[in-house]
Amino acid sequence: MTRLAAFQRVVSQYADIADFLVVYIEEAHPSDGWVSSDAPYQIPTHRCLEDRLRAAQLMLTEMPGSNVVVDNMDNSSNAAYGAYFERLYIVRDARVVYQGGRGPEGYRISELRNWLDIHS
């Protein structure tokens, strides 16, 4: 199962107790930079917010049941949460209560699911 499919499964399973938000940050493998051979889309480096917003539109089709927002061009959310380039968080009552490891190595949907099971 792909990471995306696993995330979609969690969103579906826990939709009644949690809201899911995807923050689209700078492109990890831009088509004009460090290209990934398995990238489903060819997205160049974002040069302006409009570029990032267009790229994030693709996420909306991939993330049913989740809200998708974009980081600003200063990448302040990315920097504040250390997401480079994917990371899972749970925020409850305005506090971070779960912080997953940095992706791709530390990205573990199973940990997120366990936390939700225990604390729901």
Automatic annotation (TrEMBL):
InterPro entries: Iodothyronine_deiodinase (IPR000643). Belongs to the iodothyronine deiodinase family. Responsible for the deiodination of T4 (3,5,3',5'-tetraiodothyronine). GO terms for molecular function: thyroxine 5'-deiodinase activity. The keyword Translocase does not apply. One of its GO terms (biological process) is hormone biosynthetic process. This is Iodothyronine deiodinase. It holds the Pfam family T4_deiodinase. Keywords: Oxidoreductase, Selenocysteine, Thyroid hormones biosynthesis.
